[in-house]
Design goal:
By secondary structure, the chain is α+β, with helices and mostly antiparallel strands. It has four helices and 16 strands. Helices cover about 15% and strands about 35% of the residues.
C-alpha cells in the first residue's frame, strides 16, 4: 500500500482566475490542481520554475471543507468593482510620451468586476513516487515550516495550513456506487453521479491541470463538486483511492495527464 499526506489550508479570501474571462475576472470555486502544486512547492522550497517538473506526476485530491465555524456553509463569492488604467494607456500614451519627451498622459480608467472566494478552506491529499520529495514535504508539514509564503491564488491572500495525518491507500475501481469525500475530477466522460435528497451538485470546467515552468497550462480538466461544504458524492464508473483511516475516506486523484482516465 502507498502513503498519502493530508493537510488543510485556508485563508480569508482566494482568487483562482478563470483564464477565459475578460471584462469580468471570475474565479474557479475551488483551488485548481496547478495551484495545489504551488502550495506543495512553497512548503518544500521549490521555486515556480522547479515545482512543475518535480510535482507534475504527483497524486493530488482536493476536498472543500469548513474551518471557520462562524462562516458560510457553502462556496460563497464576493463580487466587487475596480477601476484600472486601460491597456491603450501603456501601448499608445506612454510610448508617445517617451518618443517625444513631452506632452500629457491621458489616464483612461476602465471599470471591471472581480470575484473573490470568501473563507476558502480545502483539505488536500498529496502522494508521489519520488521519495525525497514526499519525505521533505511531510517533514516540513509536520513542523509547520515553509520556505515560501503560501497563498491562495493571489500573493496578498496569505494562507495558513495544518497537518492532518498520513495514511496508506489502495486504488480501486468503482464498479458499484461509492461515496466520495473529494471533488470528482474527469477529463472526457463524466462519471455517473447519483442525486440524493437535500444535496447540491455543480460542474466546473476548464480548470488548469498542470503548468509548465513558463506558466503555460498543459491541459485542462473538469470536476463535479458540491458547493455545500463537506457534502459527499455518491458515484460509480471511475477509479478511486481508499484511505486506511478510521473515517474510511474515499478520494479521487486529479489526473496528471489528459490520457489518464
Amino acid at each position: 500500500m502507498r502513503k498519502v499526506a493530508v493537510f488543510d489550508v485556508w485563508s480569508n479570501f482566494a482568487y483562482f482566475r478563470r483564464h477565459y474571462t475578460t471584462t469580468t475576472a471570475s474565479t474557479h470555486p475551488f483551488i485548481p490542481r496547478s495551484a495545489a502544486e504551488g502550495l506543495v512547492g512553497a512548503i518544500c522550497g521549490y521555486s515556480s520554475e522547479e515545482f512543475p517538473d518535480s510535482l507534475g506526476d504527483a497524486r493530488i485530491a482536493i476536498s472543500l471543507i469548513k474551518i471557520n465555524e462562524q462562516g458560510v456553509d457553502r462556496v460563497a463569492k464576493l463580487p466587487f468593482g475596480v477601476s484600472y488604467t486601460h491597456s491603450d494607456f501603456w501601448t499608445l500614451q506612454v510610448g508617445k510620451y517617451l518618443r517625444k519627451g513631452r506632452g500629457s498622459l491621458n489616464h483612461v480608467p476602465v471599470p471591471r468586476t472581480i470575484e473573490l472566494i470568501i473563507d476558502p478552506a480545502y483539505r488536500i491529499y498529496f502522494s508521489t513516487e519520488q521519495s525525497h520529495v514526499y519525505s521533505k514535504f511531510v517533514d516540513n508539514l509536520k513542523r509547520h515550516r515553509t520556505h515560501y509564503t503560501p497563498y491562495l491564488g493571489s500573493s496578498n491572500m496569505i494562507a495558513n495550513f495544518a497537518y492532518v495525518g498520513e495514511y496508506e491507500f489502495s486504488m480501486k475501481q468503482a464498479d458499484q456506487e461509492v461515496r466520495i469525500q473529494s471533488i470528482l475530477p474527469f477529463i472526457a466522460k463524466m462519471p455517473y453521479v447519483k442525486p440524493e435528497p437535500n444535496s447540491r451538485y455543480a460542474i466546473e470546467q476548464n480548470i488548469p491541470l498542470h503548468l509548465t515552468p513558463n506558466r503555460k497550462a498543459t491541459s485542462y480538466y473538469s470536476a463535479v463538486y458540491s458547493p455545500l461544504f463537506e457534502q459527499t458524492i455518491l458515484m460509480s464508473g471511475i477509479s478511486y483511492a481508499e484511505l486506511d483511516s478510521r473515517k474510511g475516506a474515499n478520494i479521487v486523484f486529479i489526473p496528471t495527464a489528459p490520457s489518464t482516465p
